[in-house]
Amino acid sequence: AGKDARMTLWDIHGKYSIGDLELLGLYARGTLGDTLAINNAAGIAPGSGNAAPKSFYGWYGQAAYHVWKQGEMRLTPFVRYERYNTQVSVDAGYTANPLNDETVVTAGANFNLSREVVLKADYQNYKTDNKKDRFNLGVGYMF
Questions:
Q1: What is the distance between the alpha carbons of residues 26 and 13, in angstroms, rounded to a whole number?
Q2: Which pLDDT does position 4 carry in this prediction?
Q3: Nearest to residue 132, comparing CAs of 60, 82, 78, 66?
Q4: Torsions phi, psi for 37 (to 5 deg)
Q5: Which helix (H) or strand (E) holds 39?
Q6: What is the CB neighbour count within 10 angstroms for residue 89?
Q7: CA 54, chain centre distance (Å)
Q8: Which of 54, 83, 106, 122 has its CA 20 to 30 A from that of 132?
Q9: How many angstroms separate the CA atoms of 85 and 12, rounded?
Q10: Whole-number mean pLDDT of the chain?
Q11: What distance in Å separates the CA atoms of residue 17 and residue 14, rounded to the nearest whole number?
Q12: Burial class (CB in 10 A: 0-12, 13-18, 19+), 96
């Protein structure tokens, strides 16, 4: 409270489809103001890797291909490559945590039962912090 913590965030994204191939991409960058006051108010000491970021960015590219279709059902494997750094710059005297500069490769598939229902599975491989590697399962419903 009482801090001028203005956040500016912009992004650009696109999607291209041709036949059964879908390509997606996104790039985002942001800045945060008054980070020294935020760090002080939060009790984050200089030298800490938990400092509020002055700037951050992230991007990904994804390719997917519809390998099977029958009626509304379809199977779509995909692969995604992403890079992000949530502490590109921090205030002088603070340290950026190297685990916040990450590359992730995700491979998985979506199985659409209908236009409204999807089953999802993927595996994520984190290059910087492999303790985050994981297998994800999901269900989506659009109403």
A1: 4
A2: 76
A3: 82
A4: -65, -35
A5: helix 35-41
A6: 16
A7: 18
A8: 54
A9: 17
A10: 96
A11: 10
A12: middle
Distance CA 73, CA 51 (A): 47
pLDDT at 60 over 80: yes
Residue 49 contacts residue 95 (beta carbons within 8 Å) = yes
Which tokens is 90 given?
């921090």
User: For residue range 96-122, what is the model confidence (pLDDT) as tens digits?
Assistant: 999 999 999 999 999 999 999 999 999
pTM of the model: 0.90
pLDDT of residue 62: 98
Is residue 19 scored above 70 in pLDDT? yes
- Phi (first) and psi of residue 115, to 5 degrees: -65, -20
Percent of all residues in the chain with a pLDDT value above 70, rounded to a whole number: 99
CB proximity list for 37: less than 8 A, separation 6 or greater: 3, 4, 5
Q: Is 4 exposed, middle or buried (0-12, 13-18, 19+ CB in 10 A)?
A: exposed
Rounded to whole angstroms, the Cα distance separating 100 from 131 reads 13
